[in-house]
Amino acid sequence: MSETKSTCPYCGVGCGVLIQTEGDRITGVRGDPSHPANFGRLCTKGSTLHLTASPAIAQQARLLAPALRPARGETPRPIGWNEALDLAADRFARVIAEDGPDAVGFYLSGQLLTEDYYVFNKLAKGLVGTNNLDTNSRLCMSSAVAGYKKTLGADAPPACYDDVKDAGCLFIAGSNTAWAHPIFFRRIEEAKRANPAMKIVVVDPRRTDTCEIADLHLALQPGSDVMLFHGLLHVMLHEGWTDTAFIDAHTQGFEALRETVRDCAPERVAEVCGLAVDDIVQAARLFATGGSGDAAQRAPTLSLYCMGLNQSSHGTDKNAALINLHLATGQIGQPGAGPFSLTGQPNAMGGREVGGLSNLLPAHRDMANADHRAEVAAFWGVPAIPATPGLSAIEMFRAAAEGQVRALWIACTNPAQSMPDQALVRRALERCEFVVLQEAFATTATAAFADLLLPATTWGEKDGTVTNSERRISRVRPAVAAPGEARHDWAIAADFGQRLQSRLALQALAPAVPALTAYDTPEQVWNEHRATTRGRDLDITGLSYVLLDELGPQQWPMPEGQAAGTARLYQDGVFATPDGRARFSPEPWRPLAEARDADWPYSLNTGRLRDQWHGMSRTGTLGRLFGHVAEPALQMAPQDMAREGLAAGDLVEVASRRGSAVLPVQPDATLAPAQTFLAMHWGEEFLGGRDAQGREMTGVNGLTTPTFCPTSKQPELKHAAVRIRRAALPWTLLGIAWLPADRALAVRQALREAARDLRFVSCVPFGDEGAGGGEGGVLLRAAADAPPPAALVDRIEALLGLGDGQALRYADPARGHRRAVRLQRDGELAHVRAVLLAGDTRAEGWLKTLIQDRLPAQDFGRRLLSYQATPPVAVVSRGKTVCNCFGVAEQDIAGHLAACDGSEAARLAGLQQALRCGTNCGSCVPELRRMVRETPVRLHRQAA
């Protein structure tokens, strides 16, 4: 076995990993103890990376050769790389010749490496001459970019991870850090243990797991963040908690902001935000004084924020209003203080560094700045960079839907799942004349719309760099060779660029310069990127691949001659503005762009699950990662469910002005009345069906709105006005089976396709691939207005392995009922291998437990075909998996806690010692803490 140092491809924490290989196979992964982002820790997602790289998954999920779709709706056929890239170059050149460079667009991903981003950016803006290059980071971090630039002058998070241990107050706004950035949350827990006096404020409409560590939770109404932050400043001014000396010496524009917040008294803020006045005053005191309670002895305050602020029609205002508080109290440029935006994706920061947004240029240069355009044009050796900013993500797909963008190149992202307003996105993909998808996985929703599919490398195969949330650049190194014919993303873009340049030159449509994208290695690309940063705020001229190998990951800036990277910015009080003074933003609070009303009475919020990532093209291949949240469900406040007459598990139709989805509803006491929650991951790959008019339902983003912030152009993914009604679908189906691991994923896809015309379809994996046995589980759930044709149920039975006459079987064709069970004998024992319940699924609970928990079933006989909701013999489910590392389930924990005495801390420690849960990655610790708190202490009778 050998080990290769690399970086995790999931969130913006940027954890270092050691990839273990044997020959040409990845066999394991562990955290890199020397990496300063995680010091050896990995979360549930990172610790299962090696399982997503298994040959079984590659065989079923990976795109392994270029493929061309002869016509829309037809099956792609494999072609060679030369044919693929020549065809792409011909089609793009023709569109450019006929309609100009702005008739093409490039849509990229925050999961690309910096080198990949750089080549694409140069290709679009330098060669093609269009600024129509945007990225899914537009959906993630563009409001943070705009907020930093508006106030501090540059897109540069000023703080670092180490600041957590120095903070007197942590102010966490719009971030479920415990789930979205779990390894960073471990640092927060450690800091709180080391300094119990530290105060933690969490601002979030939901009571998430992050709130388990909070001293104060502000459960504000969606969209009211700016009002809250202005109200906090109003209190600070009234109490004399601002830092007048800092304001006078280092800022400008404070008087305009003072006028804005004059009307934001606590009583008005409480009404708008749905908060208590006392909580608003307490939050202002904690923020302004860093928890010390005395502005004269102010302790540091560090704010942490993410999508709750960014994904908003007023995202820039939210970011800037929070930064206002730091500037007004001098809480910036010192250990433990500052506004710290937590990047969502692994390299959204790197993409921003090279100019990977439609309004940016390399090294944080602005498209709108003529001097910046001239600098880049001179550096690249082209006559000019187009002056007009390109189309942002929403605008690009809208333009494609309207026929203005005729050719679209999509790399490493899945807009047919992740973009809001899927009806618009799919119109765009269908109308666009030529869609190229450059992707590692063939199973994404977007793949079905691509004319040309190009296989790209992914984690464990790639070579380059990424930048994490704290501006730290890490190396990504390959541990194994690329499978099949997959190529690196930068290499695909470079090859395509050279072919396109030759075609455009023949038509005098390209600058007469040497090949702009002629690179042989990622290091050549990185060195060119490095040169663009000289003298800029992110100067990395002191870095190289060699130094990163020798010194380890480094934070920018690190100019030439500097021995190490820079941990904190603005320590001298000089900001990245023309006069060195930070700017206050006086923008007033504005209500939500899409308000709730009598027709649309609920607010839909979206967010992450603990163990899943984005559209789940990678994590969704592992049943193990579905143990914590097994299936899609709409979360709803219990009192709202009661008012609507709904019970847990009932199917509901949730509809917005753009589309609808049918799925089960579950009570969630963390939600306030009129608020609902649906995880962002559930796209058509896992949740589908057709609405009452026969239109395809596309999951969560069939509901969300494309309305975006006018400054950042980031869409409002955190709120959509919806209505919820019971879905009267009397015919239901449940199919569940254990299958060979090398077929499970393909069967799941086939099941989803077979059932796609029913009103509701959910199809997910289950099981622990790391437990051995070479098996994977698949669970299909469906519903319809009436029994479908028998041939459909026959097809589902066959896919589940129930169609060969070896299963126990019962059928009532007149009622549309069918039940089938397959048993497998292992010596004296028999276990259920597959189940189909169609037309009546009341026996689901115990049959599903029998198969998922592999419980003995030899004593049940034909009773396995029972309708009964209760089993003929006691069958106890272990419940959901709380600790993924050690497979510890809900009932295991409940059973232990029922016999425990002592304080909450003592019971938690005893639980961890007995069951090991929460002792590895720690992702489950907040939930364990909540379970301990909610379990009554056992009372002992005293001996007589």
From TrEMBL:
Protein name: Assimilatory nitrate reductase (NADH) alpha subunit apoprotein
GO terms for cellular component: membrane; oxidoreductase complex
Family assignment from sequence similarity: Belongs to the prokaryotic molybdopterin-containing oxidoreductase family. NasA/NapA/NarB subfamily.
Listed cofactors: Mo-bis(molybdopterin guanine dinucleotide); [4Fe-4S] cluster
PANTHER family per the UniProt record, alphabetical: NADPH-FE(3+) OXIDOREDUCTASE SUBUNIT ALPHA, RESPIRATORY NITRATE REDUCTASE
GO annotation terms (biological process): cellular respiration; nitrate assimilation
Organism: Pseudacidovorax intermedius
Keywords: 4Fe-4S, Iron, Iron-sulfur, Metal-binding, Molybdenum, Nitrate assimilation, Oxidoreductase
GO molecular function: 4 iron, 4 sulfur cluster binding; metal ion binding; molybdopterin cofactor binding; oxidoreductase activity
Superkingdom of the source species: Bacteria
